[in-house]
Amino acid sequence: MYHHYLLTRTRNVFLVFSLLTIxxxxxxxxxxLTEKDIIPVPKSVISSEDGxxxxxxxxxxxxxxxxxxxxxxxxNEVRNNTGLAISSEINSDTASEGIHFQLIDAIKGExxxxxxxxxxxxxxxxxxxxxxxxxxxxxxxxxxxxxxxSILNSWSLPALIINDxxxxxxxxxxxxxxxxxxxxxxxxxxxxxxAAYKFNYFHxxxxxxxxxxxxxxxxxxxxxxGARTEVDGGEGGFYTQEDYREIVKYARERFITVVPEIDMPxxxxxxxxxxxxxNCDGKAPELYTGTKxxxxxxxxxKEVTYTFVEDVIRELAAITPGPYIHIGGDESLSTEEExxxxxxxxxxxxxxxxxxxxxxxxxxxxxxxxxxxxVQFWGKEKNAIEAVKKGAKLIMSPSTxxxxxxxxxxxxxxxxxxxxxxxxxxxxxxxxxxxxxxVTRKDIxxxxxxxxxxxxxxxxxxxYMVFPRLMGYAEIGWSAKKDRNWEAYKKxxxxxxxxxxxxxxxxxxSEEVLDEK
Length: 517
Ligand code: TNX
Fold this sequence. Notes:
19 strands, binds ligand TNX
């Protein structure tokens, strides 16, 4: 009997011990980044001894209602990553123990300061946006459990002071939802990825030859007809204005501004199919499911074309709180140069009349540009250089560096290669202010990495092309040039890939990064 008791006891102790091992934070069932692993690399990190012990009692205290979203976002991510549900309350007593999110006057814009000490964590910024960016840094330092069943009860965060702010005001990524349609849920997931790496613009390429994806109430056939297909003949789809508002709201909560694009006067087959009167001969072409570019154009001399554009821009501007509307303007190979110039000039005015600032692909520099109009460099260096001479600012999306639809190498199954292969190093190792002669830092508003989707059909494919190149573009946009270095970066990147793995996110397992010790 006694003997039996002892055995059971031993077994219980053993059981408790193994549970402890499973439920506590250890190397086997969780992964935790250090302050040296943060992407994008912060402007300044000072490390010290004695970190903060995180536990279920670590409440978040915040001093302003406008921080509620960031607080809830943080709590949610902590729960997802560790299993721990922590509480929060409005409280501006920063002397007390805990995790403090504080708005203060001394910091501006997206900048933030993160101080981690033994007794407390203090995240300070001048705006709720700055707090949200800082939350992303803090979240990278929180461990991630490997199995769904476990809970990480307590762990410690490194003691440090981070002072951080972005290098470029515009840090974006574009998703092409025309060549293949992606649902609101898929788009939200894409936005989640952008938010985690401190992007602040989401450019959505809403229209092209293969599909018109946004409801325009005054021209209903755009979606009744023009949204019905996609590359290779899939069923396509579109966003109702309600759907679009939902995307905008989701992005906005994460301090990401949506930039909608209506590509014109080329890339318009879907619109031309929906409304024959937009064609010079009045005849509607067939719906298009191939991947050629440059064969379609609005009829430049018809007045109905401008009635159409005015209606589309008016409706789009009304549901777009951000300052920009992208008017495309690329590869209009079926539009006479003269016509192109007069069309872009007129459409530019329409955008301003609707209270928005136009952005166009680099070809738009052929037209007379108003002083605020932004030019997005993708292809012809000469266009971008001319644009700058005319006083325009650039968004840098060089296709040879920043096109996430380019294959990594000759073995990549997805993607295209007309701009070359873009391996992880090529995508990372360039400076926006060093690729165009005569174009310097002051001419550049920021960086954008587009994902064109001729060959991309689902979320796994998106993730494969985007990860890990996206982190590189995030760092180019946010971090200081002097702090960026490929050798150091790939060590950090490797840890981020381990986290993607734990989270079940698809990515390209690049040997360039994997070989890293
Ligand atoms: C060029 S980049 C395009 C797109 C294609 C892309 C494919 C640009 C402004 N136009 O229409 O999808 O190449 O890489």
